[in-house]
Every structure is written in C-alpha cells, then in structure tokens.
Design goal:
The protein is α+β, with helices and mostly antiparallel strands. It has helices spanning about 5-10, 25-50, 90-95, 110-115, 130-135, 185, 220-225, 265, 290-305, 335-355, 365-370, 445-450, 465-470, 505-510, and strands at about 80, 80-85, 190, 200, 310-315, 330, 360, 395-400, 405-410, 420. Helix 9 crosses helix 10 (about 335-355).
C-alpha cells in the first residue's frame, strides 16, 4: 500500500529556525559590520591624538596651498572643538592682499565665493564663470551707469566685440599708427630693393616678440649696429589708463606681445636710404636734424677729397641756327656747391624716400632748404647750407679752389627742416585682457590676422575679432579654455598692500627637520 504524504506532514519536517544557524557568509557579514566601524573609530582616534586634521578635510588642496593640507586652523576658525565650514576672508588676507576690482563696484564677494578650495591640485585662479556673472550679469556701479557692457554671463553669452574693433563716437575703429604700410603688397611676391630679386615675405620677417629670434632675414648690419637719437618709447602709442595690471609686474617670458617693428631689422634690407649716386651708403634712419648733419658732413668730406667738382661743365647745346655751342663751364665756391647738392639730396629724401613710409609735415622747398647764411658772414660763405639744432655754428674744414684748406662755418636753420609725425605703434591692443602670442605659436599668423592679406591702408585694424577666438575657445573638452579668468584679471594689483607674514612653516612649528 502506497504511503500518503499530506501538507501537514511535510510542514512538520521543515526547521523553522533555519535562519538562525550560522554560516560562513553570515559570519563574514558579522565581522565586517563590527570590525570596519571599529577600525574607523581607531583610525580617527589615532589621527586625533596625532593632531592630524586631514581626516576631517573635504579633499586635497590646490598646488598653492598644498602645504596647508594638515593645517586646518591656518584657514578655518575653530569653535567648540570643530572647524568652520568656510575659510574666513581674514585668514586669506593674513597671507596675501586682494585689492578691490574697481573703486565703483557695489558688491564685494568673499574670497571663497570665487576661489574654491579642496578640489584637488587645480589652479585656484580658475574661478567659475558664475562667480563673475554675479556682478557682470547685471553690472551696477556706485557712480551710476557702468562704462563697460552690463550683461555678460560668459565669453559665449553676452560678451561684446573687442573694444579695439568697435566703432567709437560714430567712427569706425582705426589704427592710430602713422607709418604707411600696405600689408596686401607685402604679403605678395615683391621686389627686394630697386634692383633685387622678387621675394615672398613672411609675417615673422617683420613681426617678432620682444625676445624673439635674433635672425632677421631682411636686416642691415650697418643700421642694426648704429645708434639713434630716438628710443623705442618714441615709437609706441601710449595706452589709455584704467586697465587692471597683471599680478606679476613683468612678463613671465617676454613672448606675450609683438615688439614694435624696427627699420634696421625688418625694412633696411629692402628699403634703401640712398641720397646721391656719389655714395654707396644711405643716410641714417634718424631725426631730420641728424640726417641733415650727416649730409653736410658727407658732402663736405667729398668736396675736400674731390675739389675738382667745383668746376662743372654742361653738355653743349645748339642755338636756333643749329650751330653747336661751346660747353658751359661754371666754377662754384664751396658754399654754393654744398648748398645745392645737399638741397637736392634732401628734396629726394623728404619728398620721396622718407615720405614713402612716414607722415611728413612742413616739408621745405628746395629753395628753403638751400638758405644762405646770415649777412654777418662773408658773401663767399653765405651760400653754405644751414642746419642743425645747436646754439653755435659748427666749423668744417674744406678745400677752396683745390689749393688750401680753410674753415667754413655752418649756420642754423631748424625752421627749414621737416617734422615727422610720431609713429604711434600700438603694442598692446587689448589692455583689459591677457593675451599670449607664444601660446598660439602653433597657428599660422594669417589664420587669425586674415585681414592682413587684403589690407591696403595704415588705418586698418588687423586684430582678429571675437568670432575668430570663439572658433577655438568654447565650452567642451574638444575646445580650448574659455572661462573669464583665461583673459581677465580681477584684483587691481596696483593697489596691493604689503602683508606682514605670520604663518610658520609646519616643519618649524612642530620641530621637524
């Protein structure tokens, strides 16, 4: 007979306390649950007795403050046995001053609102755009209407076109420089000098940073080694005040901005300053009075070495009857000869050679350039050319009639020299922003300064627009950094105050070595 199994009988065979029986997994869970908290408490207590506060830290600190990771009290105020959640401004200012952004600002943010710590080894200057937008998203000033754009959220949202390219008072942006440059011609194959070959210029042949390579392809050794009476400061355009300076007073590398173009290194190889076929050298690239003195000296020396030039003959002509005439011969005194030839040379320089690049004013006529001497000099000497900017006449030794030497006096005539407009070369186009050419050295110049390929006027501003910069500087991992700190500085470091240091190195304060 078959055995009968009922549900009741089967239920009686089940052990209702099966879950209470110990197993390997249960034992492991128990020891982990009891052991790990015990280990954590022991670890915290051990760090507490050792006075190591890193156990309470929110994370690693920036590179600048890495030495303070174990010194919480240096930044955080300790009350009731615990440290405050945020570092106080007083703690920050005890080590370094943070001057105001602008005197007219209506809102002052705490240090920690822009410079957030415990984010690892990051650049603490790299503030979030939201920090800047707290003020610049709706900019207000204590003096009323702000001078700058009032609604900027980020570089991509609300940032206006660069100031150097924006119209001002209804006039289009223009370059204040006075040097006449046709970039379009120089970017095409061009003849090197009057009789030279065609060459293809590169941007780097003329434009280099202050500490750029000393290899100048179109330099002239004579002009490079010559001293001038003008300085580099005479060439540049003075930037308007109001820009916030960088934290460091000097440039870290010297490759941030392009240096002013110099004639000796960039132009002299192609542009000759020849003045007379008797001489192979050109005049100095200097002020008109220096050029004039050079011409007086060179022609006087030539006359002393070649006194026969005082007798000049002209090709014979023909009279109305067709009969040949005898050659015309004239004999000059040294004074008239010098005045005539120097006037011819200066007329070539002032009206053509120098005027090709410089903006000239008050250019004298040839008759004005060859002014005679004052009446108190002898009539034979009155034909000498007057020059210079000196309180006394300058004597020169010259030959007279090829027989002997005598002293001839050169007089004064500064009113008969032209004036040259200041070059006004702009070195820093964006005084309110940081820019580093060296960081962009991997890009061709024309890829940013594309206007240079077609510019024919000196007044053209060849700066790239904001759209060009946005092509690379945009949010996302595939683009370059575009946050505000990349180009702008916040604190007005010209008003920085010296801070008396009070912090002691941890190794010294604990007696370590």
């Amino acid at each position: 007979m078959a055995r009968t199994r009922t549900t009741k009988k089967l239920a009686q065979r089940i052990d209702l306390n099966y879950f209470k029986r110990p197993t390997a997994l249960k034992r492991a869970k128990f020891w982990l649950s009891a052991g790990l908290p015990a280990i954590a408490l022991i670890w915290i207590a051990w760090h507490g007795f050792a006075r190591d506060s890193r156990v309470y830290s929110s994370g690693r600190m920036s590179e600048a403050h890495a030495v303070l990771e174990a010194q919480c009290a240096a930044c955080h105020v300790q009350t009731a046995g615990a440290f405050s959640a945020k570092a106080s401004d007083a703690a920050c200012l005890s080590c370094h001053d943070g001057p105001l952004h602008h005197a007219a600002q209506t809102q002052t943010l705490g240090c920690a609102e822009c410079h957030t710590e415990h984010r690892g080894r990051v650049n603490l200057v790299a503030a979030k755009n939201q920090s800047c937008a707290q003020c610049h998203g709706n900019l207000k000033t204590s003096s009323g209407s702000p001078h700058y754009a009032a609604h900027i959220e980020s570089f991509e949202d609300g940032h206006p076109e660069f100031a150097a390219l924006r119209p001002l008072d209804g006039m289009a942006a223009h370059d204040p420089g006075t040097i006449k440059v046709n970039h379009a011609i120089h970017m095409k194959p061009i003849r090197r000098g009057p009789n030279g070959p065609n060459v293809q210029l590169e941007c780097g042949d003329c434009h280099k940073t202050a500490v750029g390579s000393a290899e100048w392809k179109y330099a002239d050794a004579i002009y490079t080694s010559a001293s001038t009476t003008y300085s580099s400061e005479d060439l540049v355009f003075t930037t308007k005040a109001g820009a916030l300076p960088l934290p460091r007073p000097t440039a870290p590398s010297g490759r941030e901005r392009m240096a002013p173009v110099k004639f000796a290194t960039a132009c002299a190889g192609c542009h000759s300053l020849a003045f007379d076929k008797r001489f192979t050298e050109g005049v100095p690239h200097d002020k008109p009075e220096v050029v004039h003195a050079f011409l007086v000296r060179k022609f006087s020396e030539y006359l002393a070495a070649h006194p026969e030039v005082l007798s000049e003959s002209r090709d014979p002509g023909r009279n109305l009857a067709g009969k040949p005439l005898a050659p015309q011969v004239r004999k000059l005194w040294p004074g008239p000869w010098l005045a005539e030839h120097i006037a011819d040379a200066e007329d070539l320089l002032w009206r053509k050679t120098c005027n090709q690049c410089h903006t000239m004013a008050h250019v004298p006529t040839k008759e004005e350039s060859a002014r005679w001497m004052p009446d108190d000099y002898s009539s034979k000497e009155r034909g000498l050319f007057a020059f210079a900017n000196s309180a006394k006449p300058n004597p020169l030794q010259v030959f007279r009639n090829g027989e002997s030497t005598s002293t001839i006096v050169i007089g004064l005539a500064t009113q008969y020299l032209p004036s040259i407009a200041p070059s006004n070369i702009t070195v820093q186009w964006m005084p309110h922003a940081k820019f580093d050419h060296d960081a962009h050295r991997g890009f061709a110049c024309a890829s940013c300064h594309e206007k240079a390929l077609s510019s024919t006027e000196t007044s053209d501003v060849l700066l790239p627009g904001i759209a060009t910069c946005k092509a690379c500087h945009a949010p996302g991992p595939e683009h370059a950094e575009s946050r505000c700190f990349e180009c702008h500085t916040y604190h007005d470091w010209s008003k920085r105050k010296e801070v008396t240091p009070t912090f002691t190195l941890p190794a010294l304060s604990t007696g370590g070595r």
